[in-house]
Amino acid sequence: MIAETALQEDVDVVGLSILSGAHNVLVPQIIEKLKQNGQEEVLVFVGGIIPKKDIPDLLHAGVTAVYGPGTNTHQISEDIIKATQRPPK
Hints:
alpha/beta; 46% helix
């Protein structure tokens, strides 16, 4: 549903907050569905309770950035702005 909504709303960024511990399953599935929808350019940011050991796999799967508890929302906003202002590929 997340990828379908992102397609319908023509978004540039998807932000996911995952507290369930299912990030290693859910995030790659969402990224794959975005790709299937032709949304390879949609950036995915993830926050939540994510062990440091899982971050490299999430980045390898296509996540733009991962944020843990207590991350300053100003920093997240700045990161999103910077990422969306990059030159086209």
